[in-house]
Every structure is written in structure tokens, then in C-alpha cells.
Amino acid sequence: MNESGTLYEAFVEQLRDTYDAECxxxxxxxxxxxxxxxxxxxxxxxxxxxxxxxxxxRLERIFGSLEEExxxxxxxxxxxxxxxxxxxxSNGFDERTIDACLIAASQHVEHYEMASYGTLVAWSHCVGxxxxxxxLQETLLEEKATDLxxxxxxxxxxxxxxxxxxxxxxxxxxxxxVRAVKAAARQH
Length: 188
Prior knowledge:
By secondary structure, the chain is an all-alpha fold. The chain has one domain: Ferritin (Up-down Bundle), CATH 1.20.1260.10. Helix content is about 80%, strand content about 0%. The protein is built from six helices and no strands. Helix 2 packs antiparallel against helix 5 and helix 4 packs antiparallel against helix 5.
């Protein structure tokens, strides 16, 4: 344990935030796999569930090597991303559109995780722990690979299938769009 107010302390706090984020994802991935209609997408979620379990275990090993208590710090960012993603499932979309929305939601998760792990890798270099940096880099590469797999699934037909099954939206005038944005901003 290092002094209070240092980059090391910020690093440990980010580890705890990331640990909580991964634990939140662990709870949601089985639901996403069940909601997917595409067998390939279901398989991708099941594979990522196994990888995410490995990420959690890797973070636990990192806490141990740093002699820090294994505990999460609530990750509001991930909670918000997951809440947004679950909203897509309750919009009454057809199953192909739900698959496209599941991919989009998953990519929001992946990009958040890539940002978190990228920061952790950089900070672990700064605090001088190459072993921890290597473990975090391994996870970062897995997150990037998952993002690429999701893009490939979307581009290999899931997005196109969703577009074919859904009617085209009616064109909006700019005034209507501006009013909608202003109304949404007033709600927040």
C-alpha cells in the first residue's frame, strides 16, 4: 500500500472500478445470450462470458500481487451503459433488430472496458509494475478482439437483416429534430 493521494492510489481505485464493471457485465451476459436470436451472436456472448470470468480472475490475481483487498468500487459508468442496453430490449423491436441493438450495446461495453484497461496499462507502467501491466495488456487485447468480432458479426449480416425487416423511418424535418433534442435536454 502506497501513500494517499498518489497515482498508485488512483490506479488501485481504477482497478476497483474496473473489477466492479466486469462483475456487472458477468451478470448481464447470460441475459444477452438468451435474448439474441442469432446462433452466432449467442455463441459470441457465451464465449465472452467465459472470457469475462477470466478477466475477473485476472483482476483478483492483480489485487493479490499488489497486496490489496479484492473489492469493487461501484462503476456508475458501466451501470449506465448496461441500463441503456437493456432499454433496447424493451422497445418492442423485432428479433433481428434486437440482435443489432445487442451488438451496439455490447460494443459500448467493450469500448468502455478498452478505455479502462488502456488507462490501467499506462498507469501500471508509471507505478513500475511490469507483471501487472502485462496481465492488464492481455485483457485489453482480449477486449479489442471481442469488439472486432462483434463488428464482424454486425457487418456479416445482422445489421442488414435488421434493416430489411424494419420499415424505413419517415424523414424528419430539421425543426422536428431540434425540438426533440431540446425536449430531451429539458428532461435531464
